[in-house]
Design a protein that fits this description.
The protein is α+β, with helices and mostly antiparallel strands. The protein is built from four helices and four strands, in the order ααααββββ. It has helices at about 1-15, 25-40, 50-55, 60-75, and strands at about 80-90, 95-105, 110-120, 125-130. Strands 1-2-3-4 form a four-stranded antiparallel beta sheet. It is globular, with a radius of gyration of 18 Å.
């Protein structure tokens, strides 16, 4: 009986997707920020992006290519970035998660705030915009 119960629990945990309420926007945004600043490549974290933002990443338009290149260049200048959650604000369909980034940039200790905008898409939190 116990073996059946354990097997059932394992089966449910494997086939049942994690609901949006189980993984909040703060966790999704923090994982995105940490991986983006670690890999310094938006292409390595594109699974976190909302389809609308992903469309700009895959766009052939010069403006979009320059925008993403500039973003990667700015992220690439950070060394030993420590990312700390500051606030979470809900505004209509969006949830805005604000972080403080501290580390070394341009060979000096530096800090800045970064906002990550998220929206629910098919039951998962996705990055809608960065500001």
């Amino acid at each position: 009986m116990i073996k059946k119960a354990i097997f059932f629990m394992m089966l449910v945990s494997v086939i049942h997707p994690i609901s949006a309420s189980a993984v909040g926007p703060e966790q999704v945004a923090l994982e995105f920020m940490q991986r983006y600043y670690e890999t310094k490549s938006i292409h390595r974290v594109k699974s976190h992006l909302h389809p609308t933002l992903l469309a700009t990443l895959n766009s052939e338009q010069k403006f979009h290519k320059e925008m993403w290149a500039s973003s990667e260049e700015l992220v690439g200048r950070w060394e030993d970035a420590k990312i700390t959650h500051l606030t979470t604000t809900e505004r209509g369909e969006e949830t805005i998660v604000k972080f403080r980034i501290e580390g070394v940039r341009f060979n000096k200790r530096d800090a800045m705030d970064q906002s990550v905008y998220l929206r629910l898409h098919e039951g998962s939190w996705k990055i809608w915009a960065l500001a």
